[in-house]
Amino acid sequence: MNSIWSIRTGIRDYLESIFRTCRRWIEKYPYIKTAYTIFSWLSLIIFVLSLFFVKDSRTMMVQYLWSIYVLLQFWFLCRSKTLPWKPIVLFVLAGVILVVPLTTLTVNIFHGLFGGTTSDTWSVAVITPIFEELWKLLPLGLFLFFSRRASALSLSDYTLIGAATGVGFQLMEELSRRWLSSGPGDYSSTWLGGKTIHWDFFTLFPGYFEESFLPTLMTVSHPVHTAMIALGFGIAFRLRTRLTKWVFLFPVVLLLWSILDHAAYNGQFKLPDWVLRIHDWTGSGYKTKPALLLMLAASLIADYMALNKIQTRLPSLPNETFLNPLSELFNMTRSICLERSKFAYWLGFYRERRELGFHLLYGNEEAAGRQEPLQARVKVLYQALTGLAVILLLAAGLFASMGTLTDGSETSCYACMFDSLQNWWDRLEWYEQGAIILGAIALSMLAVGFFPALGIALTGAGIAGSGHEIAGYIRDPKRLLTPENMLSVVAGIILSRIPFGKGLKWLGSKGRGYVRKLLDKIGKRKSDVDVPVRPKPPQLKTEEVIAPQSGKAIKVFTDGNTIVPVDKIEKYLRGKVNVNIQDVKQEIRDLKQLKQTQRKVFDADPKNASRLKSLEKMKHNFERSDDMRKNLESVGLDDTIENNQSIAKHLMDVGKQVKPDHTLDVPSVLEGPSGKLKTLSTWKMVDGKPYLVTVKLIPMTS
Hints:
Blueprint: H1 2-28, H2 30-53, H3 55-77, H4 85-114, H5 121-135, H6 138-146, H7 155-180, E1 189-190, E2 194-195, E3 197-198, E4 208-210, E5 218-219, H8 222-239, H9 249-266, H10 273-281, H11 288-309, H12 325-337, H13 343-362, H14 365-368, H15 374-406, H16 408-427, H17 430-444, H18 450-464, H19 467-475, H20 483-496, H21 501-523, E6 542-546, E7 553-558, E8 563-565, H22 566-572, H23 581-597, H24 599-604, H25 606-634, H26 641-655, E9 666-672, E10 675-686, E11 689-699
Antiparallel strand pairs: 1-2, 3-4, 4-5, 6-7, 7-8, 9-10, 10-11
Helix pairs in contact: 1-2, 2-3, 3-7, 4-5, 4-7, 5-9, 7-8, 8-9, 8-11, 12-13, 12-21, 13-15, 15-16, 15-18, 15-19, 15-20, 16-19, 17-18, 18-20, 23-25
């Protein structure tokens, strides 16, 4: 086990060193990023042009939209997810560029060794289903083996990872079918069976296989099979400590069930009767999707029950008696309908809270330091929503100003373009507008994530639906002279013209009462629960002083009598010391190995011993800093501005009691929302004022 762990750590450290090297190259040579940006835009432009001239591109676009639609269904149902959209898309790519080639290579090698062709019954109905279902689990296995946050996944994360890999695999499989189908009819239809591959908009998890004429069996799509198996592994992993290791037979049974469904459909009328009889006992493929939905519902209940066990350690809304997905959905839906400016905050708040909860519940030492900066990512949506409109309005004002320098007719003509744009948009039916928006989302997702793509598409639709307003400002650009007027106009246009926004607002106002009655029974909510507001931190004065040890200028908290360095609070106590711990550990291992295997070479350079000692000290400082972070988080003092300033205020109060003859390990008690810590602070008198040198945090048992 230790050798496996060392191999895992070595491979991961090596890959991370390559990643860091690439990032340093990008920072050192900015033209790399510029070249990549140009290449990305050229690729997107060429792809858009190909939609008009190349039939296969349009075929690919259709299947791409269907695949994204299936993934969004899973995204919506997995309410306890903690993974953001971008990693999920990477699993889709893994299904495309990893699973499909491996499956093809494996099947061909098998035929090369044992003979036969890929059209043989034993290949189509036995070998192919086995290898496909097994290889689709490879991305999940690699993630669990190498990822630092693997131990802190929710059950919904397992489901999403499996579904995303299945979506990628099915995308390539269906593209191959569509491209290779040369007939004028539907590629998914046969002469005897009728329509066999079903892509229906109002179907949950479309893409399933079932004959339209007298069907006797069916098989669900690849995302459903892989999601069910992955969720089974997540359940077994969660229960492994309560039950024996035999619990891992559960996902194995689900894997065999999926292979049976796949094989029975591929080999119907050709497989032995006993195989089809077993398949009939398991529901002939019709029970697979209900089984997944039941497992998913049970996993959601289990996830939220686990989160409620540590609710006191998580940020909660006013009168939120227990955490549940219904109130989360209600608040996010209400923000979309009535307070769209708060939607991104709700989205980030709920996902961040779930991720924090599963880190506290199940995270190991590696996962403890992997909390992501969620608040920074949700701001991307705001940038996408406002950036395009601001650029357009600035360009409009520029052209309008150019028009006033010549004559008014050119300005009016330019404004008429926006009038015509809105007239065209208003003439479209609702489903035509929706199709355009979905296409814009899909195209944007080739370059950005889902939510920025959603923002870009809705912004474009808002501009098309606000042509008259924009034209009015072009004709009279003086209305945009002040920055506040321009920003208010941009925000007003965007927030008032989001497609279906008015209809959603009306629907929200009508159904609000009924939903609130239900939530009153579930969560005992008060009438107007707003977005959680952060309390204002204590206002502490900061200034720059010369550090007595290094002689460098540093920023400190001070009240005129006590001095507390800012970095002691915001970096040292938060596990953010400027040390690349992976590189440090690797260098320590290399030096120790050199000392053990080539002692003479090691002793020949005196710098080796001093360097090893320095590295050990750096490692000790990092581990001590990380322990401080864990202790603070264990009592509910997370890394926020308010908490950091409260800690600084506590230490400043302690410093006021420091005497010149008693500066070492001054004791005090730091209280958090869910516990207390004993603090031992060491001070130094600088110009007669107590200056904080270091601090220790010790958990209190009672």
